[in-house]
Design a protein that fits this description.
The chain is mainly alpha-helical. Among the domains are: 64 residues, no CATH class; 81 residues, Tetratricopeptide repeat domain (Serine Threonine Protein Phosphatase 5, Tetratricopeptide repeat), CATH 1.25.40. It has a two-stranded antiparallel ribbon. The relative contact order is 0.03.
Length: 390
């Protein structure tokens, strides 16, 4: 449609020019002594138009010839940039394929370009790290300095990651502190911080990092629970020699952590070691009321003080619901031994061994036999206990 319109317009213009030229009778006289030139109007118009186009095309040709060196230089520069981009792309592909030597080689090629230098240096550093060439790694990371802010952040993140993987956690935390000030919501940085703090046993900082990751959706419930459990266990261990500090920390624990079997068992053991039998029993009973756990039941038999009757009564109530639990039966046997209830203790321990013969069960029964003056039976159970232990 557009071609047809333009054809019609040009045809009309041509017809108009032809009609004007056929009806034009004027002429032009140019006197340049000693010459006299006479031209028709039509010829003059033709010469002017032809001269304009000749001058235009001559000017364009000269400009094109003058610009040839610059265009050649630009073409070569663009071709070089394409070569460097391909080298960077090949380096990335080789790195993710695990071909670290090839990745380092291609990245080193891309280092010569200003546009690709920063990213190429980071890839080369990671590749050198994987190959165990740590001095080259540092050199490559140094070459990435002075790049754009986002590339510099990537360089520091890479440095922190490599330091953590090398076990240089204190240095990694110093780098991460600087990075966190720039981007406190970066999940990668928070995960690296969590990993480094865990390795350094900075348990309070671990809890802070877990809280931040959970808030940002960067940590699943199971992983978060496991990290919190490890942190609280570490803090409990640090306070294991101080009854006041241990009790204070236990009161500060979230309720869901107090009923965690591993945490409850650990806190109870430390309390027993410090002579806090009442505190240990309270910890175990609270956890067992929420969730039945054989390891806590076994520990319950060790936690009683001088008067074990209240614990025996509670354990016998539990026995109504867990009549065939060998750990509960053995715990009852131990509690009865504390109260010198030898007959009940023997029946409970033997019932436990009938359900599940264990090293601890036979050792406890051997000790009971010694108490009631049956050394031969005690020797048999000691022997059986040794066999199970072996």
């Amino acid at each position: 449609m557009r071609f047809a319109l333009w054809s019609l317009v040009l045809a009309a213009v041509a017809v108009g020019i032809a009609l004007f030229a056929s009806n034009s009778t004027g002429y032009v006289v140019i006197i340049l002594a000693p010459w006299r030139i006479e031209l028709s109007i039509n010829m003059l118009v033709f010469l002017i138009v032809a001269g304009y186009f000749a001058f235009y095309f001559l000017t364009r040709m000269v400009a094109t010839l003058v610009a040839i060196p610059q265009r050649v230089s630009a073409y070569r520069a663009e071709r070089e940039r394409d070569r460097l981009r391909r080298a960077l792309s090949d380096a990335l592909l080789a790195f993710f394929q695990g071909r670290y030597a090839s990745a380092e080689k291609n990245a080193a090629t891309a280092l010569t370009g200003d546009e690709t230098k920063g990213v190429a240096a980071i890839i080369a550093a990671r590749s050198a790290h994987e190959l165990g060439r740590f001095s080259e790694r540092e050199q490559f990371l140094d070459q990435a300095k002075g790049s754009a802010p986002e590339v510099d952040q990537a360089r520091l993140t890479t440095l922190a990651d490599l330091l953590v993987s090398q076990g240089r956690n204190e240095e990694a935390l110093a780098v991460l502190k600087d990075l966190s000030a720039r981007d406190s919501r970066n999940l990668r940085l928070l995960r690296l911080k969590l990993q480094a703090e865990q390795a350094m046993h900075n348990w309070d900082e671990v809890l802070d990092a877990v809280a931040s990751l959970v808030k940002l959706g960067g940590l699943g419930p199971d992983e978060a629970q496991s990290a919190r459990r490890a942190a609280h266990l570490g803090n409990l261990q640090r306070k294991a020699q101080d009854a006041a500090a241990l009790g204070s920390y236990w009161k500060q624990l979230p309720s869901e952590m107090r009923i965690d079997p591993a945490i409850a068992a650990t806190a109870a053991r430390y309390q027993i070691a410090l002579g806090g039998h009442a505190e240990a029993l309270a910890i175990l009973e609270q956890a067992l009321e929420r969730e039945w756990n054989p390891s806590l039941v076994a520990l319950y038999g060790e936690a009683a003080g001088t008067d074990a009757l209240p614990q025996i009564e509670r354990a016998e109530k539990w026995l109504r619901s867990h009549a065939r639990d060998p750990a509960l039966l053995l715990a009852l046997g131990k509690l009865c031994m504390r109260q010198n209830l030898w007959g009940k203790a023997q029946s409970y321990i033997e019932a436990s061994l009938a359900l599940e013969p264990t090293h601890d069960g036979h050792m406890t029964l051997a000790a009971l036999m010694e108490q009631i003056g049956k050394p031969q039976e005690a020797v048999q159970h000691f022997r059986r206990s040794a066999e199970l232990a072996g």
